Amino acid sequence: YDEVRNALKKISLSRPDMVDQDEFVEVIAILRQGDKSGGSGVGNAARAFEGITSERAYERRTILKSEQNTSSAHTINEDEREEFTNHINLALAGDSDIGYRLPINPHTMQLFDEARDGLILSKLINYSMPDTIDERVLNRGKRLSPFQITENNNVAINSAKAIGCSVVNIGSQDLAEGREHLVLGLVWQIIKKGLLANINIKLHPELYRLLEDGETLEDFLKLPPDMILLRWFNYHLAAAGWHRRVSNFSSDIKDSENYTVLLSQLVPTECTRAPLHERDLGERAEQMLQNADRIGCRRYVSPKTVVN
Fold first, then answer.
1. Is 17 helix (H, G, I), strand (E, B) or coil?
2. In 3-state terms, what secondary structure has residue 221?
3. Whole-model pTM?
């Protein structure tokens, strides 16, 4: 899928979403000769990219070169692409308008092609933040015109901005062209908004217990949801008598120890601390996720997502 997709980017199609005989021959020729343009310069650019912080991240990245500007390159993380795609498959399964397009293959670049018409992004926004979009304004169907696609993408971008996503330098044409780094960044922001939407004291008044000495409720309400979640995490780690604390959701949780202790503190009858005795990080993550599954919290998370 990805090889054909990349080959199609190298030719000029006479009609959108259609390949005539001559263009097909061009694609076959490109596939046969392989891409000989990617040299060490691209690899060096990838290693210099600030977002790559480990060998694992370097190995699991995809370099995207601009056909218009050969000196420009962007990097996307393949693990993130896979997990975001899994989330979309789970969240939008059975949707009356786009259910037939799911599941999207998480191991290819299919997500970016499916997102071109704005429908999946709009549906994802409404899943994360219900009723943000009046879906009657969306153009639906298997073959939308460029004008209809532009309308859908404008709705998606404006709605994403309305729920607090940063859409700087993202236009409807970027989505229509399936520009991977922009689409993936927008998808993550939308998913994150949904995951953190219920973390507020109005829905969960018991969060007042997280106030620190001398802190007022007014100060507490100014904290962003992810900071409140970290404080909640540490509150339960302290209650469990655990010696560690978390300050982020990356390096502090990748060994699964803090997650294991949190789950055992929340539901001790279902979740044990047995994973702490496992040395292999991947296997420990899987055992921890099995605990999470017992209480309905695993969702689409995989061991490699935790470890990486």
1. coil
2. helix
3. 0.74
